[in-house]
Amino acid sequence: MSRRKTSVATLRGTAVAVAVSAATAFAGTAIADETANKATIQTAFDAWASGTGSPYDLLADNVEWTITGNSAASRTYRSRDAFINEVIKPFNSRMSVGLKPTIRDIYADRDTVIVFFDAAGTAKDGQRYKNTYAWFLDLDGGRIVKASAFFDSIAFNKLWELPVAAE
What we know:
This protein is α+β, with helices and mostly antiparallel strands.
């Protein structure tokens, strides 16, 4: 083999080794981020279930939260304050016993965590509120920056029709 061909082969081998090392490092970082993101959301849901916190504590100020479907609250909320004031506070004011979540499954893929869960509580009219949710949460630095929420809009709307309690 000529000296030039040997140099080219050596360069190719080095390039492949560098690419494999970079890909391995990236994959390791991605797996670590996925694990951390999943743990962050799991911890927030555990706090919600025990009454000591909630996933809403993780919302970035400029979060974009989209409620999909045809519920009375379906649209995109473009800040933490808008989402909390227009959805969460009015929802909670209609409850005599707040929601308690039970996670069915939780998945992580890079910066996205998907939580499939049931939640139940008691409305002010004494009726049991139960719903099943799927939340797709995009995290950045441990904060939720984007969310898409799916749930049974019929059950939600039935609760939403109740009067809002005075604060």
